[in-house]
Amino acid sequence: MIEVRSSYVVTMAAAEGEAFLYAVQHAIENKNPYIFFPCGGGQRMFESPIALANMTRTTLAINELKKNNLPYIVCFTDPTAGGITASFAMLGDIHFAEPGCLIAFAGKRVIQATVKEELSADFQTSEFCEKHGFVDRIVHRKDLRKDICNILSILLKRQSEVNSESLNETSENIEPLTKTAS
Question: Are 25 and 61 in contact (CB under 8 A)?
Answer without folding.
Answer: yes
